[in-house]
Amino acid sequence: MAAVDLLARADACANFIRSKAPGFSPKLAIILGSGLGGFADTLQRPVSIDYRQLPDFPTSSVVGHAGRLVLGYRGQVPVVVMQGRVHFYEGYQPWQVAFPARVLCRLGIHHLTVTNAAGGINTGFAVGDLMAISDHLNLAGFNPLIGPNEDKLGPRFPDMSHAYDPAFLAALERVAAEERIALRRGVYASLAGPSYETPAEIRMLRTLGADAVGMSTVPEVIVAAHMGVKVTGVSCITNLAAGISQQKLSHAEVAETADKVKDTFMRLIGRFLDEAAKMA
Ligand code: HPA
Fold first, then answer.
1. Ligand 1: which of 87, 196, 203 to mutate, most ligand atoms within 8 Å of CB?
2. pLDDT in tens, 52-72
3. Ligand 1 atom 10, closest CA
4. Does ligand 1 have an atom closer than 6 angstroms to the CB of 121?
């Protein structure tokens, strides 16, 4: 797709969203991963838009991804929430996987929180742990910036040295400590999926320095970095990665664990957004 087209499409979508909530100008956005969508229900004065209504927005086919954009307030702070996302393995083009994050950034947010369900690779991790993402390994085999660069969105070769903003990461860890929520920290490796990894692949990923593995998030983080929007990431360790325990991996286990930790997850995210709002 021609670069000029991408900017026009993202702005058309952002304008459509503005037309549904006149005067609403979000400062923060959050993308909620598998089974973690409940946070959207905590917003005040919500306006909910089905992804299918949004021009060019890809729609998810995955169980646990509602496919709704919710505009609402946390106290006085306007926040936009994506309840569910799409993945490369669903058959979308790289630019499409990252398009929703582009639209959030064009709405004028100054900070994006990304969340996901992930398999734990670090043997110190337990099922149900929450992990602050300190960095990532993009092993999904694609990059959402491939194609002509739109200079109005960002540079051709964006710096990724601080893809997960250190000040916001520190704020997240501070909030977790105050709330007495155990929060791990680690590197998230993104693979295309949709098959889970083999035990040999997990050993490889551990050798490469990965602490958790999943099939999402990285495209959104790359476009946010491209557009100069600061990012914070949280993984919910829904299962131990392949080969670590005897248990077979299943989406049912992922969903079940996400459901069990959702109250703690929502408390952490809620308090973090309160801090992030002050850090403009
Ligand atoms: N591997 C890849 N993606 C995942 C996993 C996993 O073990 N758990 C949740 N998403």
1. 196
2. 999 999 987 766 667 999 999
3. 118
4. no
Right CATH for 3-279 from 3.40.30.110, 3.40.50.1580, 3.30.470.10, 1.10.10.10: 3.40.50.1580
Q: Cα(first)–Cα(last) distance of the chain, in Å?
A: 33
> pTM of the prediction?
0.94
198-222 pLDDT, tens digit per residue, is 999 999 999 999 999 999 999 999 9
214 vs 226: CA distance, rounded Å:
22
Does the beta carbon of 205 lie inside 6 Å of ligand 1?
Answer: no
| Any atom of ligand 1 within 6 Å of the Cβ of 240 | no
pLDDT tens track for 157-183: 999 999 999 999 999 999 999 999 999
Contacts of residue 278, Cβ cutoff 8 Å, sequence gap at least 6: none
Bridge partners for 136 per DSSP? 188
User: Are 147 and 240 within 8 A, CB to CB?
Assistant: no
Q: Which two tokens stand for residue 217?
A: 């998030």
**Which active-site residues does the annotation give?**
34, 65, 87, 89-90, 117, 215-216, 239, 251
The atom number, within ligand 1, closest to the CA of 119 reads 7
